[in-house]
Amino acid sequence: MADRRTFRLMLLILGLVFAFLYIPISVLVGLSFNAGGMPTAWTGFSLKWYGALFANQDILRAAGNTLIVGLVSAAISTVLGTLLAIGVEIRRRKGSVLETLIFAPMVIPDIVLAIALLSFFSLLDVRLGLHTVIMAHVVFNLAYVCAVVRARLKSFDWSIVEASTDLGASTLTTLRRVVLPVLAPAIIAGGLLAFTLSVDEFIIAFFTAGAQRASITLPMQIYGMIRFGVTPEINVLATLVIGFSLVTLALSQRLNRGGLPGQ
Amino acid sequence: MTTLLSLRHVEKHFGHVRAVNGVSLDIRQNEFFALLGASGSGKTTLLRMLAGFEALSGGQILLNGKDISHVPPNHRPVNLMFQSYALFPHMSVAQNIAYGLEMEKLPRTEIRQRVDEILATIQLSALASRKPEQLSGGQRQRVALARALVKRPQLLLLDEPLGALDKKLRGEMQLELKRIQHQFGITFIIVTHDQEEALVMADRIAILQHGELLQCAPPREVYEHPANRFAAEFIGVMNVIPVARDGAKLTAAEGSLIRADIPDGMGGDLVAAVRPERLRLDAHACENRLSGRILATAYHGLDLQVHIETPAMPKPLICRVTADAAEARSFRTGDVLSLGWSRADTRIFAA
Ligand SMILES: Nc1ncnc2c1ncn2[C@@H]1O[C@H](COP(=O)(O)OP(=O)(O)OP(=O)(O)O)[C@@H](O)[C@H]1O
Ligand SMILES: [Mg+2]
């Protein structure tokens, strides 16, 4: 009997935790369908704010910018971060460690990194724009991708690299046919992480995007709008972002499961 | 017989550790050669140098008379079967085996044919599409062997290939390896620290100690005429009896005379050595004799190992007799037993 009661109690706690996590989000999703648009009163179901959102050129442009920054910086940092992780692991096996240096961008506060990047760009006289946001995002994404791939490398069996060489493969062939496929789940996970981090990154983008409206990203756009209160359009936007994130999450899990047996 | 591989004063130093120390060897075409030695004696290091994974600190490696010391591993007609098997986890059994042939840029049809052929040889055709993680230890081992063999290297190196297998499977695989070696006509160098395995499989055995070559000879020679006391005790079981020398006369500690041929130029403290299975119960008919009390008997199925405490030796004397011999059934702990052996079975070593 006692067991049963403990079990019920645990279920209750679990329920509360989930409620705590998801009630705010459901409220937001619900409000995005509120015809009246005021958070204080429900006045009926409507899709009109969705229509309004898609008519808002500023928001669409910002979403487009965010997608570009996310995809390009994720792609670049996945390639560089993977190679970096492999290189560092090889060096480490030979006894020299430079790990701390790589992970610094992960622990340095974003605001510091943002100021540093801005000063750096202005020192070099680089015109600010989307390209500088991309470069800045690569800087911190690199560290995350590298960390994810390195975690997988810790359990990597290096004798398969020697086996590949022994069977006649060049270093490049070994990388392409043995190392990368075995690391694939970690590389994909790192890439997705980089993408999501980049999509909701605000501070660094804010500092490095410059003054033009053309290089405003989604978080910056939302920040600009929210200064005049939470509009129904923001609820709609947030709902769409949640949907997008859920699809990405499901996709990455699917990939990892259906992926290669790399443990 | 032609020489396939020559090692000339091969050296490998890791810092101040001399892992391989001036090893010179000739290995013949089609030979089944075993490298034997205690843990840390340099077996793996030597093998990895032959495969090309460790640079030489000194000396030369010649294959068919050509110096290959500086040829990288992917350009040597030599393959290594890894101790951990090192199968590619993301490839099927067939893909693992085909990999080395793909590196040779062979036509697809030939690759498929050779893979099928070798899968049949190792009796794994039914599992061709499985991933390594879905195989048993013995099956993985056979895939690793096939992957190296399918390239038809001039020389196949095997690092403790049977290390992960249980005793019964080991025995089967030992015969299997010999059969495959014979069928393919490839020179095998196998590393093992299991002396019995080396005796069973090899045409010749090299014993390494602290990176140095101690002895290199056929199994019977190594067993019957070990180069020194270390080799004698390393291969099989050996009874070592400290003896005092007076000219050509040797006496054991409790006074009995040991008759043996003393090799030329041997000085200092000596020991006499005799194998357990050369000890006989009809001591009166033998040239050498020792007696003592039975400490324990161990039944091994085919034979019985009797441990005998004798004042002549610091350690118990070990004697092997056929288990169903009439006398063997009546042995009891504490019984006094007299054992004899012939002069021809006695070896003398520096202590
Ligand atoms: N990469 C290395 N760096 C430093 N020392 C090494 C290295 N590899 C081997 N050694 C040393 O060289 C010696 C020989 O090692 P090796 O692995 O060849 O021994 P082994 O005969 O294969 O032993 P085992 O039977 O335990 O496998 C050991 O003392 C070992 O510590
Ligand atoms: Mg070893």
Summarize the model shown.
Chain A has 263 residues and is an all-alpha fold.
Main sheet summary of chain A: none
Query: Average pLDDT value of chain B?
Result: 89
Helical content of chain B (DSSP H or I, runs of 4+):
10-25%
What is the CATH superfamily of chain A? MetI-like
Could you give the count of β-strands of chain A? 0
3D structure, described in words:
By secondary structure, chain A is mostly helical. Chain A has a single domain, classed as MetI-like (MetI-like fold), CATH 1.10.3720. Chain A is built from 11 helices and no strands. Chain A is globular, with a radius of gyration of 23 Å. The C terminus of chain A is likely disordered. By secondary structure, chain B is α+β, with helices and mostly antiparallel strands. Chain B folds into 2 domains: 222 residues, P-loop containing nucleotide triphosphate hydrolases (Rossmann fold, 3-Layer(aba) Sandwich), CATH 3.40.50; 114 residues, OB fold (Dihydrolipoamide Acetyltransferase, E2P), CATH 2.40.50. Chain B has 8 helices and 19 strands. Chain B has a 6-stranded mixed β-sheet, with helices on both faces. In chain B, β4 and β5 form a beta hairpin. The interface between A and B is medium-sized, with 21 and 25 residues. Adenosine-5'-triphosphate (ATP) binds next to β2 and α1 of chain B.
